[in-house]
Amino acid sequence: MFTYIILECVKQLNGQRTMYNIYHLLTAKKSIQTVQDSNLFGLTRYYGIYKSLPREEYNQFVNDLAKEQLIKNDENQHLFITSHGENMLIELHGKLAPYFAFDGMRFYEVSYPFSKHLILFIQIITHIHVKKTNFIPIIEDRSIQQFVKKVWSVHKNNSTTLLTLIYRDLDKVLQFFPDVYSALFVDQLTTSKQIGLSKYQLSTKYNINPHDCYLFFMNTIHYICFKIEDGEAFQFLANLYPNQAKYRILSDSARKTLYYLNEGFVLEKIAAKRHLKENTIKDHIVEIAYINKTLEWKRYITKQEYDIITEKINTLSTKKLKDIKEQLPESISYFQIKLVMALEQNGETAYD
Amino acid sequence: MTNYSIEDSLYFYFGYKSFRKGQREIIEAVLNDKNVFAILPTGSGKSICYQLPAIMNSGMVIVISPLLSLMTDQVKQLRATGFKKVAALNSMISWKEKENTIKNLDSYQLIYLSPEMLQSERILQSLSQLSIHLFVIDEAHCISQWGGHEFRPDYLRIKKAHIRLNSPTILALTATATPDVQKDIVTALQLHDAKKIIYPMDKPNISFVVEHVEHMEEKQHKVIDLVQNYHVPTLIYFSSRDEATKIAISLQSKFPKRNIAYYHGGLDKQDRLLIQQQFMNHQLDVICCTNAFGMGINKKDIQLIIHYHIPSQIESFIQEIGRAGREGQECVSVTLYHDRDTFISLRLLETELPQSSLIEYYLKLIYENKIPIEQLKEDFMVQTNGIEAHWRFFRYQLEKIGILRQNLIVTDTLRFTEALSTIQTTIKKRIAYKQRKRQEMLQWVFTKNCRRFELFKHFQDSFQTPDYMCCDHCDFEWNKWSPPSQLTVKSKQNWQAVLKDILYQGDIEKNETS
């Protein structure tokens, strides 16, 4: 599957971008340029589908494809597909297309937390079912743990019912895929009976390269995400779907602002350039803060200010801006408070 | 007041019916406000000595430990048993989590801190507001220059912090301490009047074997033989990641029915966690690993430890074999040795300290005022490929010669050449020391005497009578070792059956055939 994806990207880019643009596409780095590229070349469905891909492994893989003469590169790291590669692409397309569910641009942000919710929830529920309470959570991320805890506290009825619901959902999903995909998926689950297998173990067990082990799994996750958003009648899985507000897409106008910010323009310059009020740009920045953690927030707020505001937000029960503002030193603006609220809602703090 | 005895609490919280050697004595002493300096062998349940008092809520306990992953593991394990009033402060946790912990310090009963955290004025200030009952220094040998490669300059400042926190009762713990190291610990922490509880480090249930090989490939054959003949939970230690990976893969293809994995610092966090948990959960038979594996591993049934390469010093070796036979069952340590290993371990040893030329370069920048102190660490770390220990060493040297004083650089009291030669002499001394340690390890490999005696003679005068065979120079014979076979099972079911099984859908199906 990894071969297929790379060949397809190489074919579409046809030497107009370097091999690193494909890497940025798969890992969702360098956002604005990459987003535009993926639209331009019709590669949006690969956007951010493999965020954890290490650069060296990517290089290695591309070199291997070149060695097999499926692609060739020029001295500027631009890649081209060979006729041998074209044939391979057609062959792989025939095999994979029916099961191909990746829609990166749409799901790259929800798919990761969703897969972690699913894995952790299954670990917890199977342990509770057999009354084992001391186990080490396989997902260490606190925000994931809190989400799952909340879901559990809402559906506390009984583990037997929940297990049956999850079983039916997963069984239905997995029936759709070839057996190898489904077996790989099931082996990655951690329950009270088994600890999930690592990428390398799966790779040895099924004689599939480790990248494909990962991609098969994520492909299934994208499939479930699609079904959930499509209104498929799952019995339980939708409860593990991440809170949508956090993952909403940027408005067009905010996206433009983000573009200029990434280009290095300051707030005032952007307002002037776009003939908008500075406050509008500030609203965009807050909007960006809700979904994107990579901006340099230090420009708008110092660490001390950030600390004071978080402390107030945490101690006051109100979410009313005006009430919060009144409790803070005058030098702190509404914009800064909104910014902190956005960043804090993101779970992990972005400020450091 | 409850009338529960500490035995009741031990059983209630940890599931053990009785204490192991030394535990009760230590716990009773610290509960009676007596300072304690204890040497307990690896795997003897050191952590219970402070976890139990914390859980029994006899006052707040803080634990200084340099092992970040061990800290994280212990916090996780305690939380898993239901004790949630525990937290850790170290450089690995996120800024937000740290803030949260500091804000709520008084709601915890047990707080783990890395020694670096004790240097933070803010944290010291918050801690000093609390009434701390017990101040634990884990891995206390890190205080000593002679404590091997783990020496932590920050440990020397612990005493100051202890006084700042109104001098609570001290419990200093370590698994390995030669008499020299013991002296250093007592002096640094002023433990002259403390109760000393020193338990022998020798392990009566392990037998020692060393096999010299003529060709490197022979090592691999030996390992294959051992894995084939002995179906017991096995650890194989390597000095390189690549080698561990390579041998694990070749063993797995040789024995497709067994479950064999590798573990080293190069795996990502998720995979490391999975492998550890699988080993604990009896899903793996053999792990090929580097010394990154093992800290915080609480597996009781490891019976075979193979050293594919020798460690750099006896202390590490003792720690690594300490992971076998935690419940007193018969276990064997096999060390494979080839003459070329000497060179490998010499090279490794030199990489444990920063290069002299690097020190000279940065010292010059400092003297010429060309680098602000804030940037020094960052630049230096980049140059050493992110090896934190190298930076710690350099910073400590700067402090020792008086160039670095509370984050200020003072260069007018000492000339550049003197400063440089002082640090370079220290490096030379350290390397010479490490070479001596390595030499000790080699002497053990080549000894003609009883291996048990030779291994522990650095730490104690005598040793307990072995429970089983002693060593290859005394009475060890392979054909007399026949541990019962413990094999993990590989499931051959199709995914439908597995999914049904792991989600407990076995019986439901029958009830509702529609």
Automatic annotation (TrEMBL), chain A:
<dbReference type="InterPro" id="IPR029491">
    <property type="entry name" value="Helicase_HTH"/>
</dbReference>
<protein>
    <recommendedName>
        <fullName>Helicase Helix-turn-helix domain-containing protein</fullName>
    </recommendedName>
</protein>
<feature type="domain" description="Helicase Helix-turn-helix">
    <location>
        <begin position="253"/>
        <end position="341"/>
    </location>
</feature>
<dbReference type="InterPro" id="IPR036388">
    <property type="entry name" value="WH-like_DNA-bd_sf"/>
</dbReference>
<dbReference type="InterPro" id="IPR008308">
    <property type="entry name" value="YpbB-like"/>
</dbReference>
<dbReference type="Pfam" id="PF14493">
    <property type="entry name" value="HTH_40"/>
</dbReference>
TrEMBL record, chain B:
<keyword id="KW-0547">Nucleotide-binding</keyword>
<dbReference type="GO" id="GO:0043590">
    <property type="term" value="C:bacterial nucleoid"/>
</dbReference>
<dbReference type="GO" id="GO:0006281">
    <property type="term" value="P:DNA repair"/>
</dbReference>
<feature type="domain" description="Helicase C-terminal">
    <location>
        <begin position="225"/>
        <end position="371"/>
    </location>
</feature>
<dbReference type="InterPro" id="IPR002464">
    <property type="entry name" value="DNA/RNA_helicase_DEAH_CS"/>
</dbReference>
<protein>
    <submittedName>
        <fullName>ATP-dependent DNA helicase</fullName>
    </submittedName>
</protein>
<dbReference type="InterPro" id="IPR014001">
    <property type="entry name" value="Helicase_ATP-bd"/>
</dbReference>
<dbReference type="GO" id="GO:0006310">
    <property type="term" value="P:DNA recombination"/>
</dbReference>
<feature type="domain" description="Helicase ATP-binding">
    <location>
        <begin position="27"/>
        <end position="195"/>
    </location>
</feature>
<dbReference type="InterPro" id="IPR027417">
    <property type="entry name" value="P-loop_NTPase"/>
</dbReference>
<dbReference type="InterPro" id="IPR004589">
    <property type="entry name" value="DNA_helicase_ATP-dep_RecQ"/>
</dbReference>
<dbReference type="Pfam" id="PF00270">
    <property type="entry name" value="DEAD"/>
</dbReference>
<dbReference type="GO" id="GO:0043138">
    <property type="term" value="F:3'-5' DNA helicase activity"/>
</dbReference>
<dbReference type="GO" id="GO:0005524">
    <property type="term" value="F:ATP binding"/>
</dbReference>
<keyword id="KW-0238">DNA-binding</keyword>
<dbReference type="GO" id="GO:0009378">
    <property type="term" value="F:four-way junction helicase activity"/>
</dbReference>
<dbReference type="GO" id="GO:0005737">
    <property type="term" value="C:cytoplasm"/>
</dbReference>
<dbReference type="InterPro" id="IPR001650">
    <property type="entry name" value="Helicase_C-like"/>
</dbReference>
<dbReference type="Pfam" id="PF00271">
    <property type="entry name" value="Helicase_C"/>
</dbReference>
<keyword id="KW-0347">Helicase</keyword>
<keyword id="KW-0067">ATP-binding</keyword>
<dbReference type="GO" id="GO:0016787">
    <property type="term" value="F:hydrolase activity"/>
</dbReference>
